[in-house]
């Protein structure tokens, strides 16, 4: 009798082991010859801007992003000026993703009635799996044309005197789920500068970071260091901006403080005339709304 | 003791024989559909792996979540980043059985009702499920179909307040897999 129980028990164990291996075998079978896929890192930054400067992100292919950027006046202008609430600088921008790696955009800035246009090329995408790439590398190139009245109407002015150009190499990495970092060496060429001692070629080094607080909220900060002795006839400073990204469905709201008045790369780098220490701080926000213009193939 | 050896041997024989009874695919289709007052969201995954052992009824699904494709790129990003956390939990799996596999004859074309039960794992959470579907034998292939609903709360997928009207609490899952015999 005892022996029988033993046998039944062993049999039961064998049967149990057998069913377990059968399922494991099936799992192995399904995973056999599985081609490793390239696993691209997504959402290194939530929008195409870290705070006010460009991020490594492009608009997704077939998607149009409308960006409304607004900076109030400087906080140090006092109660008389309601701490800047009476003034505003606005940029209206449209960006479109042509492919996964190519995006373009245009913008109209109220600061000196400046139009800007840009191309953004994602040359490398951070990924793991079948292809391991530690960073995302994005190249940004833009042209800005100010169309306000000539600053000095008495001299001979050319159309090209209105133009300036910005080029950036944005190197970004997402470290884990919450933290992203980028550095962005930046070069700005200004065709017409106010004095002989001012440089036409201006160099800056940018750094930006994002820390995800929750699934929908992140804290972002950004610094553009302006190398000294390049702009001498007018005040020009490095910029620091910090703010919060709040995401709701197709919108991203960015609310921030910055000492940059401008909203396009050329003016952010060369036309920041005040510092945080003196209270030349601007409250600002960006609202971006994304629209799917071209649906992916299988949904057409 | 001899008996025991005999039994184990015969079990192994069944296991070996069972090998010829496996039907699999790596290009199965799963659709999910969320119907809410404000938004209808649909996504397709056409790289679903599934395997059925018609001798034992063992039925398995492996679904790579990043292979779901959405109309809106941003939805796909939210799906992976915020809701399913696909970096942490890359696959959804089902390991279970067709419980009425005995009624089933692979040698003959026909449509059979199938009851499938087992463990469904999504977002790191495993639940025992039982759903009805169909299995159709045709020209040596087996087509498995099922349509059922899952509750997001069962798998601790949280929908933030701001978009509760955009995403349904109950998601309709449609499964459509064509299984080929494994030689």
In the predicted model, the low-confidence regions of chain B spanning at least 5 consecutive residues are none
Please report the total strand number of chain B as a whole number. Answer: 9
CATH architectural label of chain B: Beta Barrel
Would you tell me the overall average pLDDT of chain B? 88
Find the CATH topology of chain B.
Answer: Lipocalin
Portion in helices of chain B: 10-25%
Structural class label of chain B: alpha+beta
Tell me the overall shape of chain A: elongated
How many β strands of chain A by DSSP? Answer: 14
How would you briefly describe this protein structure?
Chain A has 300 residues and is mainly beta. Chain A is 12% helix and 45% strand. Chain A has helices spanning 2-31, 265-270, and strands at residues 38-40, 63-74, 88-97, 102-109, 114-124, 127-129, 136-146, 163-175, 179-190, 201-212, 217-226, 239-248, 251-258, 282-292.
Task: Note down, in words, how this protein is organized.
- The complex is a heterodimer of chains A (300) and B (183).
- Chain A is mainly β and 300 residues long.
- Chain A has helices at residues 2-31, 265-270; strands at residues 38-40, 63-74, 88-97, 102-109, 114-124, 127-129, 136-146, 163-175, 179-190, 201-212, 217-226, 239-248, 251-258, 282-292.
- Chain A folds into two domains: 1-34; 41-299, Porin.
- Chain A has two helices and 14 strands; from the N terminus they run αβββββββββββββαβ.
- Chain A has a twelve-stranded antiparallel barrel with strand order 2-3-4-5-7-8-9-10-11-12-13-14. In chain A, strands 1-6 form a two-stranded antiparallel sheet.
- The longest helix of chain A has 30 residues, at 2-31.
- By secondary structure, chain B is α+β, with helices and mostly antiparallel strands.
- Chain B has a single domain, classed as Lipocalin (Beta Barrel), CATH 2.40.128.110.
- Chain B is 16% helix and 52% strand.
- Chain B has helices spanning 2-19, 73-83; strands at 22-35, 40-53, 58-64, 69-70, 91-98, 110-122, 125-138, 141-151, 170-181.
- An eight-stranded antiparallel barrel of chain B has the order 1-2-3-5-6-7-8-9.
- In chain B, strand 6 (110-122) and strand 7 form a beta hairpin.
- The longest helix of chain B has 18 residues, at 2-19.
- The mean pLDDT of chain B is 88.
- At the A-B interface, helix 1 of A face helix 1, strand 1, strand 2, strand 3 and strand 4 of B.
């Amino acid at each position: 009798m005892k022996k029988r129980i033993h046998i039944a028990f062993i049999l039961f164990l064998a049967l149990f082991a057998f069913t377990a291996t059968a399922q494991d075998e099936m799992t192995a079978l399904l995973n056999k010859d599985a081609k490793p896929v390239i696993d691209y890192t997504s959402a290194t930054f939530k929008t195409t801007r870290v705070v006010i400067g460009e991020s490594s992100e492009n608009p997704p292919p077939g998607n149009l992003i409308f960006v409304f950027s607004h900076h109030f006046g400087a906080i140090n202008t006092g109660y008389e000026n309601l701490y800047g609430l009476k003034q505003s600088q606005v940029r209206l921008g449209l960006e479109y993703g042509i492919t996964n790696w190519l995006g373009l955009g245009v913008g109209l800035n109220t600061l000196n009635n400046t139009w800007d246009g840009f191309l953004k090329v994602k040359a490398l995408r951070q990924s793991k799996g079948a292809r391991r790439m530690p960073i995302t590398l994005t190249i940004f190139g833009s042209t800005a044309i100010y169309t306000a009245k000539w600053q000095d109407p008495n001299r001979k002015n050319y159309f090209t005197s209105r133009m300036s150009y910005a080029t950036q190499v944005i190197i970004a990495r997402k470290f884990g789920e919450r933290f992203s970092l980028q550095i962005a060496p930046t070069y700005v060429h200004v065709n017409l500068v106010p004095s002989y001692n001012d440089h036409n070629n201006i160099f800056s080094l940018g750094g930006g970071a994002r820390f995800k607080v929750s699934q929908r909220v992140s804290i972002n900060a950004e610094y553009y260091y302006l190398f000294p002795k390049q702009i001498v006839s007018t005040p020009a400073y490095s910029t620091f901006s910090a703010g919060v990204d709040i995401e709701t469905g197709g919108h991203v709201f960015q609310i921030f403080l910055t000492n940059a008045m401008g909203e396009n790369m050329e003016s952010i780098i060369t036309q920041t005339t005040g510092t945080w220490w003196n209270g030349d701080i601007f409250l600002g926000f960006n609202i971006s709304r994304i629209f799917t213009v071209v649906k992916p193939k299988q949904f057409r | 003791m001899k008996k025991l050896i005999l039994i184990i041997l015969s079990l192994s024989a069944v296991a070996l024989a069972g090998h010829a009874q496996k039907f699999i695919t790596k290009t199965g289709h799963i659709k999910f559909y969320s119907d809410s007052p404000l938004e209808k969201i649909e996504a397709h995954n056409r790289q679903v792996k599934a395997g059925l052992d018609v001798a034992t009824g063992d039925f398995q699904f492996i679904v790579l979540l990043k292979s779901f494709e959405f109309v809106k790129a941003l939805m796909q990003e939210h799906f992976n980043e915020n809701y399913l956390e696909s970096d942490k939990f890359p696959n959804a799996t089902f390991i279970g059985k067709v419980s009425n596999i005995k009624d089933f004859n692979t040698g003959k074309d026909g449509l059979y009702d199938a009851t499938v039960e087992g463990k469904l794992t999504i977002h790191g959470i495993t639940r025992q499920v039982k759903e009805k579907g169909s299995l159709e034998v045709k020209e040596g292939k087996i087509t498995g179909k099922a349509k059922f609903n899952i509750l997001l709360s069962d798998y601790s997928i949280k929908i933030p307040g701001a978009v509760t009207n955009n995403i349904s609490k109950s998601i309709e899952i449609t499964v459509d897999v064509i299984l080929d015999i494994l030689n």
